[in-house]
């Protein structure tokens, strides 16, 4: 049975999946520039979250590798702002959202995205069972709900920024 943290964030998790960008990710119809924007935002957050995590869970280097084959894009304002809020804080709630997303959604989406030539190294873990066990254990931490919800809200704002940016560049 899902724990209190999962219950507290379920609505925002579904909102990310239902977002137009989330839908395009799921269908494999995301552009290279949109994917670069998404990964840049994830990397911005992981640069704050990763130092507190075990080495096998850190994603910054893998996100840098993924981004090295994509067009450069500026950092997303929502990710930068939220990363500043996380500085100096216990980032377990944010880590729960990010690693849960990589282990669940990312792992499911990766085959489709890779077929389209989009890099997904950041969703591959050396010890996926340990990561899944960590995510499951954290689900019982209802005290992390505010930060986890704020992380999902940040990701939704990033999605909005990416969509708005793409629309501004269309003829």
How would you explain this protein's 3D organization?
This protein starts with a helix and ends with a helix. The chain has one domain (4-168): Heme oxygenase-like (Heme Oxygenase, Chain A, Up-down Bundle), CATH 1.20.910. With 171 residues, the chain is mainly α. Helix 6 packs across helix 7. It has helices at residues 4-18, 20-27, 32-49, 60-67, 77-86, 92-115, 128-138, 145-168. It contains 8 helices and no strands. The radius of gyration is 15 Å and the shape is globular.
Question: SSE layout and pairings?
Answer:
Elements: H1 4-18, H2 20-27, H3 32-49, H4 60-67, H5 77-86, H6 92-115, H7 128-138, H8 145-168
Structure at a glance:
With 171 residues, this protein is mostly helical. The chain has helices spanning 4-18, 20-27, 32-49, 60-67, 77-86, 92-115, 128-138, 145-168. Helix 3 packs antiparallel against helix 4 (60-67), helix 3 runs parallel beside helix 5 (77-86) and helix 3 packs antiparallel against helix 6 (92-115).
């Amino acid at each position: 049975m899902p724990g209190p943290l999962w219950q507290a964030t379920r609505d925002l998790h579904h909102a990310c999946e239902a977002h137009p960008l989330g839908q395009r990710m799921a269908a494999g119809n995301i552009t290279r520039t949109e994917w670069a924007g998404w990964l840049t935002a994830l990397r911005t957050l992981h640069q704050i979250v990763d130092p507190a995590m075990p080495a096998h869970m850190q994603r910054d280097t893998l996100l840098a590798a993924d981004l090295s084959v994509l067009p450069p894009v500026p950092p997303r304002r929502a990710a930068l702002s939220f990363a500043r809020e996380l500085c100096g804080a216990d980032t377990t709630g944010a880590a729960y959202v990010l690693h849960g997303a990589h282990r669940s959604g990312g792992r499911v989406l990766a085959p489709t995205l890779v077929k389209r030539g989009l890099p997904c190294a950041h969703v591959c873990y050396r010890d996926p069972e340990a990561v899944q066990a960590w995510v499951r254990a954290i689900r019982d931490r209802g005290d992390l709900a505010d930060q986890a919800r704020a992380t999902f809200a940040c990701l939704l704002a990033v999605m909005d920024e990416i969509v708005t940016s793409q629309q501004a560049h269309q003829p």
